[in-house]
């Protein structure tokens, strides 16, 4: 659901003279628009005099108050009138807060000359913070960080001072903070990031702020973000199991120093048993298995395979098992296969249970996909007694699956069954170990 756009100015107030107007401090005592300050000049110093007097307003119920110029611009697609940046001078802030106006400015800034950028910047500078928080205005500020000159970028970054935490946790402004970190000089990066220090854990756990911290870890030189690592010590397992904290921990594993990673991995290994089955922590353990050093990967895989069947049937942990199969060594995959096919005292194997399990069947599928050559053929042979379909001709598979659909679980492989076995679409409700059935049929019948 798209959030409602926030006003680029404070909300309008009402008087008898004007049905709707903005607070009086936005206009001088004569009713004129305020003088636009130039960057690098004292506030209010007019570079080109007053901008044009306040335009007439017309009411647009449900859409706020728009100037005549903006209304004409929004209707220009019908009249084929072409607009340039100079046509909206004096209305840049209003256009920035409008969906179509914002897109127009963004496109024009990509090819604008320095004079045009200067004029646009003079108008947005006094309202930069409001625009950063606006659903459409934030994109205009981002464009200036991309295409503005170093003076303009520095001025915009200076506007953020004292507000970085607030902006980082705001839905739209958090994007601007990230863009600023990408384009300002290192000294300004350090100044912006330093404001996060007292509230770093709060920002990490915020749905918007976590993206800013991830960008900080990616871009800012390590000597300026010691406080980030310091704040994580002793809290790694808690953050790894957090909705947003888990993302930040993964970035630290990617961009941190070797010492940082060692600290994080020590805490992760100590709590891996819990994290593997956690709805967010499982992503962090998967990250270690996929991107970690061989010794860390092996340690995590050993823990998983020691509880293979239990974890394979767990909603979250089954994803970790799949990652172990995908990134484990051939020897580790062979060990997993042997565990699954070893008969127990009661004459059943874990394979039989997992083929019918809503999560375990995905583990079987992953193992089939990762095995090749003789190992794959051997696994197929080991599955045959479990599915009892190896002698069925292809033409009979559809009917047989219809008969079995009451006892086969899970929707995951119906489409695969249709594609491989040419089952009629009506069998779309067939569910669970279908992939195993398909593999066995393909392995024994020439299609």
UniProtKB/TrEMBL annotation:
InterPro entries in the cross-refs: ARM-like (IPR011989), ARM-type_fold (IPR016024), PUM-HD (IPR033133), Pumilio_RNA-bd (IPR033712), Pumilio_RNA-bd_rpt (IPR001313)
A GO term for molecular function: mRNA 3'-UTR binding
GO biological process: nuclear-transcribed mRNA catabolic process, deadenylation-dependent decay
Ranges where the PUM-HD domain occurs: 65-409
A matching Pfam family: PUF
Subcellular location: Cytoplasm
Alphabetized Gene3D superfamilies for the sequence: Leucine-rich Repeat Variant (1.25.10.10)
Keywords assigned: Cytoplasm, Membrane, Repeat, RNA-binding, Transmembrane, Transmembrane helix
Superkingdom field: Eukaryota
Residue stretches spanning the membrane: 426-446
PROSITE patterns recorded: PUM, PUM_HD
Major subcellular location class: cytoplasm
GO cellular component, one term: cytoplasm
Pumilio repeat boundaries on the chain: 87-122, 123-158, 159-194, 195-230, 231-266, 267-301, 302-338, 339-381
Purpose: RNA-binding nucleolar protein required for pre-rRNA processing. Involved in production of 18S rRNA and assembly of small ribosomal subunit.
Family designation: Belongs to the PUF3 family.
Protein name per its UniProtKB record: Pumilio homology domain family member 3
Organism of provenance: Verticillium longisporum
């Amino acid at each position: 659901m798209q959030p409602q756009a926030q006003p680029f100015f404070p909300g309008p107030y009402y008087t008898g003279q004007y049905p709707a107007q903005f607070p009086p401090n936005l206009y001088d005592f004569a009713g004129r628009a305020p003088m636009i300050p130039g960057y690098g000049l004292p506030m209010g110093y007019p570079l080109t005099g007053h901008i044009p007097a306040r335009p007439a307003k017309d009411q647009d119920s449900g859409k706020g108050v728009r100037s005549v110029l903006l209304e004409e611009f929004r209707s220009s697609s019908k009249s084929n009138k072409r607009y340039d940046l100079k046509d909206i001078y004096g209305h840049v802030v209003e256009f920035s807060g409008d969906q179509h106006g914002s897109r127009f400015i963004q496109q024009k800034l990509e090819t604008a000359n320095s004079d045009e950028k200067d004029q646009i910047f003079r108008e947005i500078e006094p309202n930069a913070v409001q625009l950063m928080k606006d659903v459409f205005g934030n994109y205009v500020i981002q464009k200036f960080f991309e295409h503005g000159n170093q003076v303009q970028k520095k001025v915009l970054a200076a506007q953020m001072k004292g507000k970085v935490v607030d902006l980082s946790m705001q839905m739209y402004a958090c994007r601007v903070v990230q863009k600023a970190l990408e384009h300002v000089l290192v000294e300004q990066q350090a100044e912006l990031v330093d404001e996060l220090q007292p509230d770093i854990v709060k920002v990490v756990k915020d749905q918007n702020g976590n993206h800013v911290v991830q960008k900080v870890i990616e871009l800012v030189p390590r000597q300026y973000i010691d406080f980030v690592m310091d704040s994580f010590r002793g809290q790694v397992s808690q953050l790894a199991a957090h909705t947003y904290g888990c993302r930040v921990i993964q970035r630290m594993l990617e961009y941190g120093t070797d010492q940082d990673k060692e600290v994080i991995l020590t805490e992760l290994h100590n709590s891996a048993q819990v994290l593997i089955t956690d709805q967010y922590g499982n992503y962090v353990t998967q990250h270690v298995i996929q991107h970690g050093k061989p010794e860390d990967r092996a340690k995590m895989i050993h823990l998983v395979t020691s509880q293979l069947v239990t974890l394979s049937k767990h909603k979250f942990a089954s994803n970790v098992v799949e990652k172990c199969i995908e990134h484990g060594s051939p020897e580790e995959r062979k060990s997993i296969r042997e565990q699954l096919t070893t008969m127990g005292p009661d004459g059943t194997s874990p394979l039989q249970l997992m083929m019918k399990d809503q999560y375990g069947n995905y583990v079987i599928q992953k193992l089939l996909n990762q095995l090749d050559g003789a190992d794959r053929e051997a696994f197929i042979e080991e599955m045959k007694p479990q599915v009892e379909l190896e002698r069925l001709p292809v033409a009979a598979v559809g009917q047989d699956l219809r008969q079995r659909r009451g006892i086969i679980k899970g929707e995951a492989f119906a489409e695969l069954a249709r594609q491989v076995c040419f089952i009629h679409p009506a069998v779309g409700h067939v569910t669970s170990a279908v992939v195993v059935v398909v593999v066995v049929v393909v392995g024994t019948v020439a299609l």
